[in-house]
Design brief:
It is a single chain. This protein is of the alpha/beta class. The protein is about 40% helix and about 20% strand. The chain has a five-stranded mixed beta sheet with strand order 2-1-3-4-5, sandwiched between helices. A hairpin with a 4-residue loop joins strand 4 and strand 5.
Length: about 180
């Protein structure tokens, strides 16, 4: 994915909550990541989501931090803050306790990009312990990003002319592999 972004001259930034830097770690584990990866913000506290990444205070008050709209605003906010073309965001409940009435495993991931027509968000209902939920959230965010990058490529070249094969190696679980 990062190679594809670099080839397009585009950049990526990440806003994380429940994943606490795991998504950025996965991305920066790929050699050459600096060609496309700008940086990340771990906005774990609700106030950081509002104050650092610009999530609307009314949305946070009405819906809480674990919400699709919050994920969308996080993705847009990190793009704006770090001047990136693409943004990925994670927010959710890793457990072991519920948060604001939302059960453990409720996660929202979002991707914003230049040709997605805005921001795409996905709700996940994950199972497992805290570590498993966080790891699954990273995989889901990367999968959503990959899908949006493919869609963007198809929108640019709907006939497939001149589009090379994506040769990036992916592990069995869909995560980037160095």
């Amino acid at each position: 994915m990062l190679g594809l972004l670099a080839g397009r001259g585009q950049t990526l930034a990440v806003a994380e909550s429940l994943t606490g830097g795991l998504l950025a770690a996965e991305l920066t584990g790929v050699p050459g990541a600096s060609r496309a990866f700008v940086g990340s913000v771990t906005a774990y506290a609700t106030e950081a989501k509002r104050d650092v990444l610009g999530v609307d205070a009314e949305v946070l008050a009405e819906r809480g931090p674990v919400d699709a709209e919050v994920a969308r605003q996080l993705a847009l906010g990190v793009c704006d803050l770090l001047k990136a073309d693409w943004g990925v965001a994670t927010t959710g409940v890793a457990g072991p306790e519920t948060q604001d009435g939302k059960p453990v495993g409720t996660v929202h991931v979002a991707v914003s990009g230049p040709v997605t027509g805005g921001v795409v968000a996905q709700r996940l209902n994950l199972r497992g312990d805290r570590a498993a939920i966080r790891a699954s959230s990273v995989r889901a965010a990367l999968t959503l990003l990959r899908n949006e990058l493919i869609l963007a490529r198809e929108e640019r070249d709907p006939q497939g002319a001149g589009v090379g094969q994506d040769t990036e190696q992916n592990g069995e679980d869909g995560c980037l592999q160095p």
